[in-house]
Structure formats: C-alpha cells, structure tokens
Design a protein that fits this description.
- By secondary structure, the protein is an alpha/beta fold.
- The chain folds into 3 domains: 15-130 and 142-148 and 163-210, no CATH class; 234-319, 434 Repressor (Amino-terminal Domain) (Orthogonal Bundle), CATH 1.10.260.40; 327-547, P-loop containing nucleotide triphosphate hydrolases (Rossmann fold), CATH 3.40.50.
- 42% of the residues lie in helices and 9% in strands.
- It has 19 helices and 10 strands.
- It has helices spanning 15-30, 36-43, 55-63, 70-83, 89-110, 165-180, 185-196, 202-210, 234-251, 255-262, 266-274, 281-291, 295-319, 327-331, 380-393, 428-435, 460-473, 483-488, 492-496; strands at residues 346-349, 355-358, 369-374, 397-401, 417-421, 444-448, 475-482, 502-505, 533-537, 543-547.
- It has a 10-stranded mixed beta sheet, with helices on both faces.
- Helix 10 crosses helix 11.
- The termini are far apart.
C-alpha cells in the first residue's frame, strides 16, 4: 500500500504543541512518509536487544495530544532528518528541542487552568503498520515504552479527571527518574518509598515496581528531563559518542566485548557513554585499531577528540575567571603597547594561568565594527560602557547613539564625546555632520546601544558607508543589541557581521555565533543568563570566555 500522512491530533488550545506536532509531520513528509516500523527499525535496538522505541510509541508521538518525552522525540527527529537528507542533522534536532522547550513552558502556563485532555488512541497508520500491534512484544524482547498516563481507572470513560496537567507532567518526570535509578536498586527502593508516601502517586509507584521500566539508555541517549549546564564541547562529544556507537553497533560489540578488545574496562566505557564524558585518547586509538577502522574514520574520531579536549581546556581557563571585576582593575591588565583604537571588551585567562585584558583593535580587521549581543539582562549596556570608557581613555573621540534609555547616556558629557543621539531615528545629514571631522589621525568611533531599533533609520546609508570605508575615513562602529532581534535584521546591520568579531553575553540562540563570525551551536547557548560573563571572538577562530568589567 502507498504510505499516507497520519492523522493529526486536535491541538487548537495548545498552539506551541500544535506547532511542534505540525513540524514533526512535515519532517516525516520530507523523509518520504516512512512507516512507524521503518522508523523503529532505523532507531534500532539497545545492547540488550530491546527496541529503543517501539512502533506504537512512534505513532503516539505523532498522533497523541500530549507532549512527547524529549528522548523519544530526539531519536525520531534524528532518524527522519537523516532519511530526509538534511545537511545538518544536529541543527534540526536542536530546532525541535527549542520547540519542545516552548511546549514545556506552555504546559506550565496552562497547568493550573485546565485538566489533562482525554487520551485518544492512535488507530491510524499506513499500510506497513496495519498488522497487529502485538508484533513487537511477541518475541518477549521488545521494551514497552513507559508513559506518564499509563495508570488509569478501570472505567476510564466514566472517570472524572483527578489531576491537573502539571501533576500529569510530574508523573512523567518521576517515571523518568525511576528509569535512571533502575540499576541502583537501593536508591530506587528509597526513591519509590518517598513517592509512595504521596497519595497522588502511590499507584504509579507500585506499577513501576511491578513492571520493569526501561533502563537509563532506553532512548539511546542520556535522559535530559533534568537539564544540566551545557559542556563547551557538547557538539563534539555528541558526535564522537554517536560515531563510536555506530562502529560498535555495526560489529555487534557489547561493552564486555569492548573491554576484551581494548583493555579498557566495560564499566569505564559505560561511564563515558552515560555521562557524555570525553574518553581517554588511548582508548579511542585502541578502539580504532581493534575495529579496523578506515583511515578517514580514524582521523575523524581523533579530530573530534582534539576539538573536544581543546574546548574543555578552554573551559578550565574560564573557571578561574573572577565573577566580577571593575574597570580600573581590568584596564591595568591591558598591554601597554595596545594601539589607540584598542577597546577593552573583557578579562580572560591566559595560557600561563594568569588573567589578561582582551579586546579588538577597531583600526584593523575585515570591517571596522564590533558587535555585543545577548538577551535582556545579560549586561550588554555595561559591556558597551566599558568599551566606550577604554576608547575615551586612549584619546579616541566618540559619537553615542542610545535610542532607548541606557547607562551609555551617562558618558554624554565626557570630554571626547562629539555628539549624542537619543532619538529612535537618526537623520542622515546630522549623523554625517557628526562624523565629518573624522580622519586617520583623529578617528571617531560610533558607540550604539539597542542597535536593532536603528536598522531602518534615515542615517542607514551613512552607517553602511562607515562599515564599507571606515578604515580609510577614520571611523568605526561598536554596537550592542538583543541577539534574537539582531539575527532578524537585514539592512545595514547585516553588514556588521562582516567584521567577524564580537562579544556574546549569555547566548540563548544556537545561531548567535553568526553575529560575530564563528559557529557556536548549542555548546555555548542556552545556559542561564549570567550578567557580566560572555564569549569573546576577535576574528581568529577562537572563542574565549571572559568577564566583562563593570
């Protein structure tokens, strides 16, 4: 039979969940409408020969009006992206994770406002899945997927809703915790004992004891229901572990086989897998040798290891950074031979373990610009004030632009500030006049806060000319703005990206690195907003953790 699109659930009252579900159905369409069993087969089995996700769970992900567990959604998205020929599978997975997090926020918002929706069975599938759903369990080896709504009254149709949606979601989190503790029976016993003392979850706890929940690697990935801060090498580690697992699965090696082949204990291999840690380089070399990998595969594994190791070493240097530092202390750390248009952006760790001041030379580079981006509350204006003060201290003249209230306005009366524009639109003639005195001998730097508000201002042609010819005319631009809004700008602000340098403060968007000319992905994005801490790129391809002076 010809494959057909699956029935979509009614989600009119949950717009974020509807968007996630629609995108998932569209992704399946791009992949050629594979059947649930085809998706299940592509995901594969775990080391104990259990299906990582059974075909009914695949159907539920598409057809149930519930938020799917992230682990299950991740492996399904990864399979569909690979089958659909997406150039960047990790990017597609991250896009769905952003959508999934929006659904989580939507769930929390609606939790106290509505009871959980009635569950509907996923009856529709294409011809490939028309057979009895019991096929997966007939061998006695298929792992039944745990679900937060498994515990139900006997006469469900007549039973009133007893819990709100927040409680239903909490039940799912508890079950995930039980999965993670499965092999530590003492801890599981204590955990279930605590859960059993809660009247609302006693039946669920008993059910978890009676039916073996899937172990911690059920979805093929470490559970991320309880998030931890991202490792700076997360992308490299994920790719490295995935490549290792592909080679291991191809040879049908258990962790015991890996111990016998490499001399590294199975417990150590399992620890590296479940904690997403970097294996020893010697273990990778041994694995590659015993597996007889082709040269390109061998080089790829070691290249990923080198990149992850470098990122982790850089993180160690960032760990020694002070939580805060004032401008005078940071200024004293600068290189005395720094050029006149050098700007103080932050203090970072040097290779010898000491601290040093870092920043761009606005008189050199690929474009006369430097971008400071971040979400609200990340300290953009503070960083901009530090940069402006450093330029004034070295004798550089400034033009200030603050279309919205900003601490930068406090510098308007300082010597060296030749003009200050407070309005949310800057006229062409007056802005051109403010820059007319600039020269290579007496440069002028425009320092602009909330730059996204001026993307379509009347002076945009002057700003575009500055970004193209500033080196010759003795002008440069330092701008700050909200990362999400800057990414959406397309007029003169788009040209500022050509400088390939800038400062990311608590980046939340995985593509934020595009603003400063470096790929960051979600290795550095998504962590809690920490004012005064950021990532500096000076155009050399290295991303450095820094503390911004205050």
């Amino acid at each position: 039979m010809v494959a057909q699109p699956w029935k979509r659930p009614e989600l009119a009252d949950q717009p974020d969940l509807k968007k996630l579900n629609d995108e998932l159905h569209d992704l399946r369409l791009d992949a050629g409408l594979p059947s649930a069993r085809s998706i299940r087969d592509r995901v594969g089995k775990d080391a104990q020969d259990y299906w990582i996700v059974n075909h009914q769970a695949v159907l539920d992900t598409f057809q149930k009006a519930d938020r799917p567990p992230w682990g299950r959604l991740e492996v399904i998205v990864r399979v569909l992206a690979e089958v659909g020929g997406h150039d960047d599978v990790d990017r597609e997975v991250h896009r769905f994770k952003v959508l999934w997090k929006q659904v989580v926020r939507e769930t929390v918002t609606q939790a106290s406002l509505q009871p959980p929706a009635d569950d509907t069975s996923a009856d529709d599938d294409d011809g490939n899945d028309a057979a009895d759903h019991s096929e997966d369990s007939s061998s006695g080896r298929a792992a039944e997927e745990p679900s937060a709504d498994r515990e139900t009254p006997t006469n469900r149709d007549q039973a009133p809703a007893q819990f709100n949606y927040a409680e239903e979601s909490l039940k799912g989190l508890i079950l995930n915790a039980a999965q993670a503790l499965w092999y530590d029976m003492d801890a599981l016993r204590v955990f279930l004992g605590v859960v059993r003392r809660s009247e609302g979850f006693s039946k669920m706890a008993d059910a978890a004891e009676e039916r073996r929940p899937a172990h911690a690697t059920f979805y093929g990935v470490k559970s991320r229901e309880f998030e931890v801060p991202y490792s700076p090498a997360r992308l490299e580690l994920l790719t490295l572990h995935r490549r290792l697992d592909e080679h291991r699965s191809k040879r049908k090696w258990s962790f015991t086989d890996m111990e016998n082949q490499t001399g590294v204990s199975s417990g150590t291999w399992i620890h590296w897998y479940t904690h997403r840690e970097l294996p020893d380089r010697e273990a990778l070399v041994g694995f590659s040798h015993m597996a007889g990998l082709q040269m390109e595969d061998h080089v790829l594994l070691l290249g990923l290891w080198d990149a992850a190791h470098a990122a982790l070493e850089a993180q160690k240097r960032s760990d020694v950074l002070p939580p805060s530092i004032n401008f005078d202390e940071a200024w004293a750390m600068r290189d005395p031979a720094a050029p006149r248009m050098w700007a103080l952006a932050g203090v970072g760790g040097a290779k010898d373990g000491s601290l040093a001041a870092y920043g761009p030379d606005l008189a050199s580079g690929t474009a006369p610009a430097f971008t400071v981006s971040g979400p609200s509350g990340a300290g953009r204006s503070t960083a901009l004030v530090s940069i402006a003060r450093s330029l004034l201290a070295s004798g550089t003249q400034l033009v200030l632009a603050t279309p919205r209230p900003s601490p930068l306005r406090e510098l308007a009366d300082r010597d060296g500030v030749v003009a200050h524009f407070e309005q949310n639109d800057i006229g062409h003639d007056e802005f051109e006049e403010a820059l007319s005195a600039a020269s290579a001998e007496e440069p002028i730097v425009v320092v602009m806060d909330d730059a996204e508000a001026l993307d379509e201002c009347d002076a945009r042609r002057v700003l575009r000319n500055l970004l193209e010819h500033g080196f010759d005319e003795g002008t440069a631009l330092v701008l700050a703005g909200d990362e999400a809004e800057l990414l959406a700008c397309y007029r003169w602000l788009e040209r500022a990206k050509r400088a390939h340098r800038g400062l990311l403060l608590s980046p939340q968007e995985w593509q934020a690195g595009e603003l400063i000319g470096i790929k960051t992905g979600d290795s550095t994005a998504g962590s809690p907003i920490t004012p005064g801490r950021g990532w500096l790129h000076l155009g050399d391809g290295n991303l450095m953790a820094v503390t911004v002076p205050c």
